[in-house]
Design brief:
This protein is an alpha+beta fold and 146 residues long. It has helices at residues 3-17, 43-56, 122-129, 136-141; strands at 29-35, 40-41, 61-70, 73-83, 97-109, 112-120. The protein has one domain: Roll (Nuclear Transport Factor 2, Chain: A), CATH 3.10.450. It starts with a helix and ends in a 5-residue tail after the last helix.
C-alpha cells in the first residue's frame, strides 16, 4: 500500500473507533495484532479492551491532530476525550470528563495493522479522574491554571 493509502486507513480506523463498535476492528487489524504499550496480543484482546473503554467512557472520542507516514508505518498524534460514567479497570465511575494526548506508531502489513506503539499522557488522564494527586512539591513544579 502507498503512504497515502496507509494514512487513509488510519483515518478510517479513527472514524470506526469513534462509532464504538469493536466488531468493526476486524477490517483494520491483523488477527495477531500486538499493542506493545498495553501488552495486548491478538485482535480479540484489542476488541475486549476497546469494549471496556467504550463502556467506561460512552462518549469516547479521538481526534487526529497530526499524521506522518514512512515505509509501512504511520505515526499519529491525537487527542482523546471522554466522560467516565462506567467502571474502568476496577475503578468506580467518577463522572469526570477527561482529555489527554496520545501518539501512536502503527505498522501496517498487507493493509492491516500488525503492531502499535502508543504513548499516552496517563498522568493527565489519571489526574483528571482524581485517581492521583500531585504532592506539594509536584504542585510547585507543575502549577495548575485556576
Amino acid at each position: 500500500m502507498s503512504l497515502e493509502e496507509n494514512k487513509d486507513a488510519i483515518r478510517r480506523l479513527f472514524e470506526v473507533l469513534n462509532k464504538h463498535n469493536p466488531a468493526l476492528l476486524d477490517k483494520f487489524y491483523a488477527p495477531d495484532y500486538v499493542n506493545h504499550t498495553l501488552q495486548l496480543r491478538g485482535l480479540e484482546s484489542l476488541k475486549q479492551f476497546a469494549a471496556m473503554m467504550f463502556k467506561a467512557f460512552p462518549d469516547f472520542h479521538e481526534t487526529i491532530e497530526d499524521m506522518m507516514a514512512e515505509g509501512g508505518k504511520v505515526c499519529v498524534r491525537y487527542e482523546v476525550m471522554g466522560t467516565n460514567t462506567g467502571e474502568f479497570r476496577g475503578l468506580a465511575p467518577t463522572g469526570k470528563k477527561v482529555t489527554y494526548e496520545a501518539v501512536c506508531i502503527y505498522r501496517i502489513v498487507d493493509g492491516k495493522i500488525a503492531e502499535g506503539w502508543h504513548v499516552y499522557d496517563f498522568l493527565a488522564f489519571y489526574k483528571q479522574l482524581g485517581v492521583i494527586e500531585y504532592t506539594e512539591k509536584g504542585k510547585k513544579l507543575f502549577p495548575e491554571d485556576e
